[in-house]
UniProtKB/TrEMBL annotation:
<protein>
    <recommendedName>
        <fullName>ATP-dependent DNA helicase</fullName>
    </recommendedName>
</protein>
<dbReference type="InterPro" id="IPR051055">
    <property type="entry name" value="PIF1_helicase"/>
</dbReference>
<dbReference type="InterPro" id="IPR027417">
    <property type="entry name" value="P-loop_NTPase"/>
</dbReference>
């Protein structure tokens, strides 16, 4: 990973804003303390919290607690930072993390956050600390759902499911930012039930507006169909 790399979050960091699938570019590498000084949001903590407003050393100690990482003194020998099996990873004051500007303009210092694997009985099976980013020069259509992108290049050659073309094409904010490769009319497919729903919706008058807003509209429409029709 380097400055200029296009990256994607793989964990929700700021609910509703910076979430799994958010895309941005690495613009620099910075320490936690530098980010706090410049009021930059940090993955896993709120830099405006008063406990992060003390001296550099006190701030880093509080940050290490918040991020569940171990604090090491400046100048500590590298071998002293090697973690033991089962222990938490360590970082030092000098450690720098990727600073990412996302497509909506928000800045985030991507420090390690905790990922866990929970068993079917609710028991913790695994835990690790990881910077919540992956390289994202390309995305699958599935992964791009819900995103609005300034510039999109779409290869339609391997589209195989109804609605996929719509999802891909509708990611672009404008026609100026859209480029299509291997265009094929046959790849643009709509589920037959979607067409029937549109006909059903258009057949209703203004007096049925309240009915359309209710769950009953969907229930009454789908009632005649079995699961095989819907899937």
């Amino acid at each position: 990973m380097k400055v200029g790399a296009q990256v994607m979050l793989i964990k929700n960091v700021v609910q509703g804003t910076l979430v799994n699938g958010s895309v941005g570019s690495v613009i620099a590498f910075a320490t936690v303390y530098e980010a706090i000084q410049h009021h930059i949001r940090i993955a896993g903590i709120d830099p405006e919290d008063k406990k992060f407003q003390g001296s550099e050393e006190d701030t880093l100690i509080e940050v290490s607690k918040a991020l569940k990482l171990q604090y090491t003194e400046p100048g500590e020998e590298p071998q002293a930072q090697q973690q033991q099996s089962g222990s938490q990873p360590k970082f030092s004051i000098e450690e720098k993390w990727p600073l990412v500007r996302f497509t909506d303009g928000l800045l985030l210092l991507c420090t390690p956050v905790e990922f866990t694997v929970v068993g079917i009985k609710g028991n913790l099976e695994a835990r690790r600390q990881q910077v919540p980013l992956i390289l994202a020069w390309a995305l699958s259509i599935h992964k791009s759902q819900g995103q609005t992108l300034e510039r999109v290049k779409i290869d339609m050659e391997h589209i195989f499911e109804k609605g996929q073309a719509y999802v891909a094409l509708s990611r672009a904010r404008s026609m100026d930012g859209l480029q299509i490769f291997n265009f094929n009319h046959a790849k643009i497919q709509v589920h037959p039930l979607v067409l029937k729903w549109q006909e059903f919706w258009l057949s209703l008058g203004d007096e049925d507006a309240e009915f359309l807003d209710s769950e009953g509209a969907f229930d009454s429409f789908f009632e005649p169909f079995d699961d095989d029709d819907i899937l």
